[in-house]
């Protein structure tokens, strides 16, 4: 059979793949024809692929012949990852021996070493090998493949497969470079590919996919194996296919964490990004209300924490609560101070939206030993500058980072709504507090809901707002109510003068609604069941006087009574 030369390869691959994907010439899986009939058929092949099966190290073997569950796959992969550095050291030492003592070709073999540890050897046709042309078989007679390779590796068996170099080259940059490197050896018929025993089945599935664009396996563990091998040999279309099948399987917390813990080379690939995004969305939705799952979330690994706390829809009391929880998580998982500082500087710090923390908590950030001394002042200063901006500028800053993976200025769905406070010490202790509620937030209050503000302080006492949807007992209709409460319980008494106001059309100025004075005792509140004196339907109407660009603006002035 004639061996295809490089120009033939280019022409055939162009004919086979007529419409490449926008991302490049490799990996289009939308318009490619099905060449499954030609797989391992000598009539449609120009080369012979020898797959040398090497033993896995004892540490990397699974508990059984295969992984029966995601958990088994994860445990096995963890053992392999722990041994990965050791393997790399051995490979690097072997490469140094090859580079120093061996010419580019030995006994007619050409070696190509790649960063991703996929290695292929091309050689001329040996005379001592009998081939079964149309089946995958074990080549036990193959004894003279490479004396140099034998010195370092034990070959368990050799699988023989007939391949078409244009088909493989069209699917994979790895094989494209292998078959078109311009060297004489690139035109040889026999190609040797060493792989670990644990990769054998996945590689055969991958090769079949490169012909047929489909996989027969559907189990999560088998798909993960194929995904890893597809990444190793740069078959982006198969990575996309595996990613799509895995996304269509029922997601669990265990599988989601496993997908996010794939090697960075796999996880950062465009083909796998949708799978990683689906895993993050699953975890963010499952642990949306962190307060209900505190113990579970506290046991999540770092990748899971990032998925949960990067969400805009996280239901937490306040950003202060996010800070406190992440500090607790870091101290649990990183007991060494230096490691904890490093993870806050590189991973955890970007999950905290410092601009939405209270000033009291920001002061604690400055003195927190878990933050690097150079980082803490920067994030606090950025937060204070944001708080000093006008609402329009704050919204603009938040919209600018709408597509960023980690946001700093966008508000979450806090259970306790943020407030802005202006404090005065003289001539009397006084504060002006601003609370904004979106129209959607008010709509969710009907028919009997309530929403609380974050705490603020006056004269050393903690206060909060609560907005309600009430049934007016006299008129028998629902209405909007606003109350001011004091946090401290017990015999404490505290007298204040207060005034409630709200922005109103057409002037959009703050219009006073009620004023008075009240002596607070622990657990008491003062307010008005019908702040605006109108029914709920009028208050929420499209032409309501109190929603300006979809926001209800409330203000309270509190002064300590002498």
UniProtKB/TrEMBL annotation:
The answer on whether this UniProt entry bears the keyword Cell division reads: no
BTB domain span: 150-219
- Do you know which PROSITE patterns this protein is assigned to? BTB
Q: What Pfam families does the entry give?
A: BACK, BTB
What is its pathway? Protein modification; protein ubiquitination
Which top-level group of life is the source organism from?
Answer: Eukaryota
Spell out the SMART domains in the cross-references. BACK, BTB
Tell me which GO cellular component terms the UniProt record holds. Answer: nucleus
According to its UniProt entry, one GO biological process term is: protein ubiquitination
What the protein does? Answer: May act as a substrate-specific adapter of an E3 ubiquitin-protein ligase complex (CUL3-RBX1-BTB) which mediates the ubiquitination and subsequent proteasomal degradation of target proteins.
Protein name (database record): BTB domain-containing protein
Question: Organism, per UniProt?
Answer: Gossypium tomentosum (Hawaiian cotton)
């Amino acid at each position: 059979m004639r061996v295809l030369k490089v120009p033939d390869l280019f022409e055939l691959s162009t004919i086979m793949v007529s419409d490449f994907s926008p991302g490049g010439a490799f990996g289009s899986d939308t318009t490619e024809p099905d060449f499954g009939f030609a797989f391992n058929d000598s009539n449609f092949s120009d080369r012979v692929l020898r797959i040398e099966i090497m033993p896995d190290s004892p540490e990397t073997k699974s508990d059984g012949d295969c992984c029966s569950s995601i958990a088994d796959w994860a445990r096995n992969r963890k053992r392999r990852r722990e041994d990965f550095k050791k393997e790399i050291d051995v490979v690097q030492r072997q490469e140094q021996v090859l580079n120093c003592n061996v010419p580019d070709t030995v006994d007619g073999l050409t070696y190509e070493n790649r960063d991703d540890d996929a290695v292929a050897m091309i050689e001329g046709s040996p005379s001592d090998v009998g081939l079964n042309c149309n089946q995958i078989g074990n080549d036990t007679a193959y004894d003279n493949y490479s004396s140099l390779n034998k010195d370092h590796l034990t070959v368990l068996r050799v699988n023989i497969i007939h391949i078409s170099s244009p088909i493989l080259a069209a699917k994979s940059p790895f094989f494209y470079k292998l078959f078109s490197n311009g060297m004489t050896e690139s035109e040889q018929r026999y190609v040797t590919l060493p792989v670990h025993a644990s990769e054998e089945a996945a590689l055969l599935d991958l090769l079949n996919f490169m012909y047929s664009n489909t996989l027969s396996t559907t189990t999560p563990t088998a798909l993960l194996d194929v995904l890893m091998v597809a990444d190793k040999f740069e078959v982006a279309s198969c990575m996309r296919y595996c990613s799509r099948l895995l996304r269509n399987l029922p997601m669990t917390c265990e599988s989601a964490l496993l997908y996010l813990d794939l090697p960075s080379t796999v996880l950062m690939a465009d083909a796998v990004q949708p799978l990683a995004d689906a895993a993050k969305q699953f975890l963010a939705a499952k642990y949306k209300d962190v307060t209900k799952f505190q113990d579970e979330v506290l046991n999540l690994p770092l990748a899971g924490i990032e998925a949960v706390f990067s969400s805009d829809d996280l239901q937490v009391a306040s950003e202060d609560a996010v800070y406190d929880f992440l500090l607790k998580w870091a101290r649990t998982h990183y007991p060494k101070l230096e490691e904890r500082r490093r993870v806050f500087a590189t991973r955890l710090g970007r999950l905290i939206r410092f601009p939405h923390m209270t000033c009291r908590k920001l002061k604690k950030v400055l003195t927190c030993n878990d933050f690097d001394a150079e980082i803490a002042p920067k994030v606090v200063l950025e937060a204070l500058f944001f708080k000093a901006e006008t609402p329009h500028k704050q919204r603009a800053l938040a919209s600018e980072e709408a597509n960023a993976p980690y946001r700093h200025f966008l508000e979450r769905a806090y259970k306790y709504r943020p407030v802005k406070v202006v404090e005065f010490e003289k001539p009397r202790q006084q504060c002006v507090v601003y609370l904004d509620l979106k129209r959607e937030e008010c709509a969710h209050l009907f028919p009997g809901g309530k929403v609380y503000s974050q705490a603020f302080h006056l004269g050393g006492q903690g206060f909060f707002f609560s907005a309600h949807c009430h049934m007016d007992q006299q008129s028998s209709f629902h209405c909007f109510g606003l109350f001011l409460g004091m946090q401290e319980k017990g015999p404490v008494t505290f007298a204040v003068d207060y005034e409630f106001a709200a922005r109103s059309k057409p002037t959009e100025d703050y219009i006073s609604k009620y004023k008075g004075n009240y002596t607070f005792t622990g657990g008491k509140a003062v307010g008005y069941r019908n702040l605006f004196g109108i029914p709920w339907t009028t208050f929420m109407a499209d032409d309501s006087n109190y929603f300006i660009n979809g926001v209800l603006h409330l203000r309270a002035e509190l002064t300590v009574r002498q």
